[in-house]
Amino acid sequence: MTALVPVDQIERMAVSVARSGLFGVKTPDQAMALMLIAQAEGLHPAIAARDYHVINGRPALRADAMLARFQSAGGKVEWGEYTDTKVVGKFSHPSGGSVEVAWTTKMAQDAGLTKNPTWRSYPRQMLRSRCISEGIRTVFPGVVVGTYTPEEVQDMDPPQASRAAPQPPQPAPEPQMVEEVAPPVDVEALIQKCTMTATIEGMELWRDEIRRVPKGPDRNRLMAAVKQRVDEIKREMERERQAREEPEIIEAEEGVI
Prior knowledge:
By secondary structure, the chain is an alpha+beta fold. The chain folds into three domains: 7-55; 66-156, no CATH class; 187-241, no CATH class. It is 52% helix and 12% strand. A three-stranded antiparallel beta sheet has the order 3-4-5. Strand 4 and strand 5 form a beta hairpin. Helix 1 (7-20) packs across helix 2. The radius of gyration is 26 Å and the shape is flat.
């Protein structure tokens, strides 16, 4: 069992991962959510960036990571046919028996999956990912816990067009100006979140909400609470720095004496 990582460190990692632009993670909230999931599964939060992708807002577990977890849990796989038109794998686990799964390009075409250009460029890899997901989900579903591979998530988006009968063309409506109104911000809840934040980097998680609070007494109270918490964090950081330096000073004085 991996030792728990403090929330303030996860906040820093989430901000860094989001800023990097890697792994499909676009916001610190997405990164932190994946990292908390990884920690709940007994893994180091950084594993989330390695094993997961966020595609169109959905978390996806890489096929290789899914297979590695399956094998670590005692599962086995034997590959049979392995070509650009057909991939066959036999999956087995002591708790779920065994099953042979086959995926062909015709199956993918019939399911409407090959519209994704990745299928044309890497057919064998896409078939293999489908085999892994279906085989593991059938024999030992506890490994995946409701997640899908990136290849499956890509095939989910965009949703397939409705097959309803075509409607006759309608005249274009008159253009109207519609003012988009963002939902109001719960200032009290936001103040509480800011005062509970452990790091300055973590404050960036609330930046968008803070900016949406209109000028007035509520915003003044919010900014005062943010400034107070930032000052407290800086003082805590200074105390930690001094605590680290004091033993070195004492050792140096003792050496002189």
